[in-house]
Specification:
The protein has 568 residues and is α/β, with parallel strands linked by helices. The protein is built from 13 helices and 15 strands. It has a six-stranded antiparallel sheet, covered by helices on one side. The chain has a six-stranded mixed sheet with strand order 8-12-13-3-14-15. A hairpin with a 5-residue loop joins strand 9 and strand 10 (462-465). Helix 5 packs antiparallel against helix 9 (383-420).
Length: 568
Amino acid sequence: MITFRCVKWKNFLSTGNQFTEIQLDYAPTTLIIGENGAGKSTILDALCFALFNKPFRNISKSQLVNSVNGNGTIVEVEFNVNNKDIKVVRGIKPNKFEVWVGGTMINQDANARDYQKHLEQQILGLNYRSFTQVVILGSSTFVPFMQLSTKARREVVEDILDIKIFSLMNFLLKNKNKSLLEDIRDVEYNYDLTKEKVNLQEKFIEEVVNNKSALIAENQQKLWDNRSTIDYRKDDVKALEIDNENLSFDAEEKLKVEQKLKKLTQTEAALQNRKSEHDRQIQFFQNNDECPSCEQPITESTKQTQIESRTTKIGEIENGIADLQRMESEEQDRLQSILTDLETIRKNDVEKAKILSSIAELEKFNAKLEKDIEAYQNGSVSEEDKIKLAELKGQIKSIEEQKSKLNEDKFYIDVARNLLQDSGIKTKIVKQYLPIMNKLVNTYLSSMDFFVNFNIDENFNETIKSRFRDEFSYASFSEGEKMRIDLALLFTWRAIAKMKNSTNTNLLILDEIFDSSLDNAGTDDFLKILNTFDKQNVFVISHKQDMLFDKFRNIIQFKKEQNFSRMV
């Protein structure tokens, strides 16, 4: 069982830089009241954010940071699982995610996703969807069970019945089966290939015995052809080596060219700067009649002299720049020629390596041909060929054993997968609990004066009938009647979870369910159900404080002062 102790937050939504703390196990029933925007529902977002890294309501993560303070967002949740004290700390600006067990923080070497998965699977035993179906019932972004897809309904029920492990096992077996099929295909290919090699080797040995003269001649011809090929390829190697020698260059030459290019570029940039400075001075004398420093007038002769002098210098600089650009072009051509030669040398080296490798293979093959010729001349099959045939037959036997083992493994995996299908073990377990689920739902509906016959089948489709056997759909009911169905399902999931001890928890939070859909009679019936809960801590968020004030053991009020919400 998960026993939630407390939750606290600061710089979270409208809360300022002081922790707001709520004891979650203080009273059996607690009413949370306050005006709109006072921060009543912040507890929902704080719990979901701390545990699952996303708020309950449709709010982006960046919007969770208090807009006034802009940083230092912290949420802490403390709870007990199987007599182990757990604390989860999560923050924004700076980002923080810590899980403490018994006062010691769990090693954070794993990435954030794996760290989160450990929290949900190994500690909490529930995910976000299960949490919002069993612990929280909200009025805004909450998606009731009846509005979920069939797949999502199945996942919720599997979580509650603690049978999702079968889906995980089925997934793992599916991947294992896929891998096995690939292995079987590989083994069958190797079997066929090795079988063909055995046939060829047996045929070869038979031909050696019956046709040794022809084989000797054939192998000698191959030997001569290979030797001729080797000579040709050695000539190709020599040609490549000569080409590389002709293309070889001093590595320092490339460095010198690169350095010269760099200096030329720098010199050109300096000249361009000098030209720009002369241009600015010419513009100054053209546009100004007095010195801005001494405020003395500038004579026309002075202006003309300066303009002519600087125009002359600009011409000289432009000529210098043109010379530099010509030199740069020449050096670029030299560098490109060097790089082209270098690439040719590299390609020649690669081709040379390929040729030398092929020569080595041919020489190795020739050595075998020479041994075979010698064996044929002696009138017997070589020992090497006999060993090769024995090895191939041994491989055939090994492959057959491997194939048999893989097929056996696949058979057992197929049997296990059939059992783990949705229609297998899980459906049998669901069917066992369906009568209990349906009975509980109808009991809770009757307690809220809503008399219908509600049933869920093994495919998680609902059937709703009146006393007169009229059939209805969930969508055909009023909002108040839908809320009664949602509440009945919520209580049912909690009861089933308690039976299974899967997602059993002390905490139940109901957000504004009294404020819109439930009438006064529905509210009274619902409160009667709450008072029957044993060892539960129920929090109700509502605007109807006048009607509900005296019906709860504990009252928490939120107010908003100077743009910050606080608990009073």
